[in-house]
Structure formats: structure tokens, C-alpha cells
Amino acid sequence: MGAQGLKGEVKVKTFTHQPDGLSRYAVLHARDGRNFTITAFRSAKPGEAVIAFAEVRDRTAAEGLRGTELFVARDALPPAEDDEFYHADLIGLEARDSEGRMLGKIAAIHNFGASDVIELVRADGDQVHLAFTRETVPHIHIADGYIVVAVPEDDEDNDHVE
């Protein structure tokens, strides 16, 4: 997030299905507990928006928010459809191979531009990044607390996940 203009507006990167979807939530919150009430919203370039908050009245205050992550309250989100999920639902789940052996836990889902990448943390602390595709993650069992990861067979040692 960064300042935009002189009146306290901020430019944000959106992670909603449709950028203007963010404006429907009215109040966003930061990790430190601060709430920000949306008073104006306009789309910018793809994946970005310019927002005015009631609590941010000038450029100095907007500049103070640089790097702040804003979130929507979970209960304000619509329920996930069948075969859909929120990334937050995956964080902390076990990653298992097709035989049920634990490979690690999901630490994060990233998107570096090309597609989603799942970050696993193994028991030894090593991090593994895998393409988050149906081929790599064929089964997701949120209620049971795990996903199934198809370990690439062309890797002779398979030491990148086990």
C-alpha cells in the first residue's frame, strides 16, 4: 500500500476475484488491530485500486501506511463453492504423499506472476515450493486437515519433499 495524491488516498494491490469486490467490504483491518473504513474506491490498473479511508485524511497519514497489509473479516466473505477454498483455509494443513506419509505443512500460497505456488515447510525446516496445480495437488481435504501432493517421479531422489 502506498500514498496516492495529496488528500490521503492510498493505492492498494487487490487480491479479490474482481478488483471492485474489495469496495463491498466497507471495513478493512490491519494485523495490529486498526480498522479502516472505505469512503471511496476506484479501480486503477489491473489488480490495483485507489481507496480513501475515513481514518486517513492527508498524504502524511497515507504514507505512514506504506507496506501495511489489509484484510477482510472472514465472516464477511461469501462461503466457498464446491471445489473452491480460500488460501487461508490451506495454511497449516499437512501435505501428504499418495501413501499418506507426511511431507510437510503448508506455510503459504504465493503467486509470483505465472501461477500459484504452494510453500511447504518440511520437518527439518527446509522450504519447498511446488506449482499449485491439480496435477501437483490432486486432492484437498480441508475438513480432515491435509492435502495430497503428487511427488514428481522424474526426480530420482525425491529429496526436495521427503
Number of strands: 12
Low-confidence stretches: none
| Structural class determined from secondary elements | mainly beta
CATH class of the largest domain: Mainly Beta
**Major sheet strand order:** 1-2-5-4-3-6
Average of pLDDT: 86
Detail the topology: elements first, then pairings.
Blueprint: E1 2-4, E2 9-13, E3 27-30, E4 35-43, E5 48-53, H1 59-63, E6 70-71, H2 87-90, E7 94-96, E8 102-111, E9 116-121, E10 127-131, E11 139-141, E12 146-148
Parallel strand pairs: 7-12
Antiparallel strand pairs: 1-2, 2-5, 3-4, 3-6, 4-5, 7-8, 8-9, 9-10, 11-12
Account of the 3D structure:
With 162 residues, the protein is mostly beta strands. It has two domains: 2-76, Elongation Factor Tu (Ef-tu), domain 3 (Beta Barrel); 87-148, Roll (SH3 type barrels). Helices cover 6% and strands 36% of the residues. The strands form two sheets. It has a six-stranded antiparallel sheet with strand order 1-2-5-4-3-6. The chain has a six-stranded mixed sheet with strand order 10-9-8-7-12-11. Strand 8 and strand 9 (116-121) form a beta hairpin. The longest helix is centred in the middle third of the chain and has 5 residues, at 59-63. The model has no long low-confidence stretch (mean pLDDT 86).
Summarize the structure.
This protein is mainly beta and 162 residues long. The protein has two helices and twelve strands.
What are the salient characteristics of this protein?
about 160 residues; mainly beta; Elongation Factor Tu (Ef-tu), domain 3; SH3 type barrels; 2 domains; six-stranded antiparallel β-sheet; six-stranded mixed β-sheet; 2 helices; 12 strands; elongated
